[in-house]
Amino acid sequence: MPFTDFETANSLGEGDTPLVFLEQTCEELGLGSLWAKLEFMAPTGSFKDRGSAILTTMGRDLGVYEFVEDSSGNAGASLSAYAATVGLKAHVFAPASAASGKSDQIQIFGATLHKIEGARQVATDAAEQYVADHGSVYMSHNLSPYFSEGMKAASYEIVELLDDGIDDVVLPVGNGSLLIGMVRGYQELKEAGVIERIPRFHGVQAHGVRPVVAALNDEDWSQDDVQPTNASGIAVSKPPRLAEMVEAIQSTSGTGITVTEESLTEWQSRLASSEGIFAEMTSAGAFAGLTQLIESGVIESGSNVCVPITGSGLKEPLSR
Length: 320
Prior knowledge:
Layout (H helix, E strand, L loop, with lengths): L18 E3 L1 H7 L3 E6 L9 H14 L4 E5 L3 H13 L2 E7 L4 H9 L3 E5 L3 H15 L2 E2 L6 H5 L2 H11 L5 E5 L4 H15 L8 E7 L4 H6 L25 H10 L4 E4 L1 H15 L5 H15 L8 E6 L11
Parallel strand pairs: 2-10, 3-4, 3-6, 4-5, 7-8, 7-10, 8-9
Antiparallel strand pairs: 1-2
């Protein structure tokens, strides 16, 4: 981590999330093992708490007292909570369409919520303009290396329990902090001689917003091609770390895949009724992608797979 005094680190108890074996889904998909890393069990209900702990620690120690962030919801809620614990003032720019559960979190933690009409990218543009107009600190989770550093611990925790027994990790990708951080965590463990191999990482996106998959597959795609999606957490049409995400996936010989809106709803219900897990749409998309990867032969039957479930379904209303 980018600091050494862990006793003074800003923390709400993030990390050490459960790693649960999904027996029924594993059998149905014909896998050797299927593990869900329950990141929604974090203090504010999403994996973003790992990054917020590191980013707000560094912000506090570097003298920040007020900052700007833009988010589809989860990161804004998370940074608002962690800012509150160290007395930082947060300005969070989010789409007006963000789920009410996430918007409510942002405000109850004392942050100033700036609701912006339009697509996710419009909120980013508004945040950047606010920074330019007010000379504020742009402590963006989308850009900060400190934020993605916090994600490395997810890989450490998987290895602690399963050694290097995972063949494939399938996860939703938007701005890529979890992908970049987890791959780096595995790389560091391999370099340290703790493990001998790194699993393949497969990034899943909604078909309507697919910049990473398009870049991986040399597909002609731009912001003009954006379509609505219920996977709000990954509805990022212009990720600033696109090249890093592509490099992270390619470095593990992984792939990128898109999923339909219908499959998001199907897998959200399927996980709830068969495994007792209420995942948000974004997280359910990873299982839809996993299914396609198995059907296409990219992930072979009998493989050992881990899927991080990144956010709680309790944060967003059901769309049906």
